[in-house]
Design brief:
- This protein has about 290 residues and is an alpha/beta fold.
């Protein structure tokens, strides 16, 4: 396990660090913070981006929790071995392996967009292990097959390998900005890390592979949760931006009404990333939810 301190000081909590954790023979890049003895929460980013989407949330959550924010298999800086599959099943097994490597017997999980789909599937595969679930702006979870196919088709155009491998910061601001209500709230660090990530030769190809699977209803149907929401019985909090272009608020409201133990928090003047555009209120709501017994 390689450990890199990435922030000099965080008052009141254990220092935030970057770790490379060996999981199934794959060095898995994680941002971690908090006391190891505290209740654990795993934060899962969405498609195209990395664990830096949680940069405004990790310190706050780490005041009460052990926080682990990995780059998922085939994303960011977690490179699979050349022959490894990065389909959804492989990603779930990898997340389970990460939890085992970090000795997380019971933990909560929080996902953004596609990461929320994996968080939900992780619960369905390990219902006795996941304490609470947080879903953030996820068309991957709540869109119909036709809606998802249309959404992914648009992404395949924007995130084609030849378009993102050598993108400038200006291009990434425009690309990510489509998911924000207020583009001035895009962290500059997120743009830089996107450039660095896709300067590697493999992430763009793996992203295209993931999107192609999502676009094919026959291949992706086993991983859908919209038809299985009643099986998610753990306490579930859904955050949604009223101006999210990736999925409609109406679909979120209908989905949450079917969750046995779910609730919905809606942010005004907010796009796809409530944890970035409204971090203070987001952190307060998430912390209150996690503290409930």
């Amino acid at each position: 396990m390689i450990e890199i301190q990435c922030q000099p000081e965080v008052i009141g909590i254990k220092l935030m660090k970057m770790l490379y954790v060996e999981v199934m023979g794959i060095p898995t890049r994680c941002v971690v913070a908090g006391e190891e003895s505290a209740p654990a929460i795993m934060l899962l980013h969405g498609l195209a981006l990395t664990s830096e989407v949680w940069m405004h949330n990790i310190e706050s959550l780490a005041r009460t929790h052990r926080v682990i924010a990995p780059d998922m298999l085939g994303h960011g800086f977690t490179k699979p071995v050349d022959t490894a599959s990065v389909d959804v099943s492989a990603k779930i097994r990898h997340l389970e392996g990460l939890a085992n490597a970090l000795k997380l017997d019971v933990f909560s999980v929080c996902g953004s967009s596609y990461g929320a789909l994996l968080a939900s599937l992780l619960y369905l595969a390990n219902p006795n292990r996941i304490r609470k679930l947080i879903i953030n702006g996820s068309g991957s979870c709540f869109n119909t097959e036709e809606q998802l196919k249309d959404q992914v088709s648009k992404m395949l155009t924007v995130y084609a390998p030849d378009k993102i491998s050598y993108s400038s910061r200006t291009v990434w601001r425009e690309r990510i900005g489509n998911n924000f209500f207020d583009i001035k709230k895009i962290p500059e660090e997120l743009l830089l890390i996107a450039q660095l990530c896709y300067a590697q030769p493999w992430p763009a190809l793996r992203l295209a592979e993931t999107l192609s699977t999502m676009q094919d209803p026959e291949r992706f149907r086993p991983y859908r949760i919209l038809e299985r929401l009643e099986n998610i019985t753990c306490p579930t909090l859904v955050f949604w931006g009223r101006d999210d272009r990736g999925g409609s608020l109406e679909s979120a409201e209908k989905a949450v009404s079917r969750l046995p133990n779910g609730r919905l928090v809606v942010f005004d003047d907010c796009g796809h990333y409530p944890m970035i555009e409204h971090p203070e209120e987001y952190n307060r709501c998430a912390s209150d939810f996690l503290a409930e017994t």
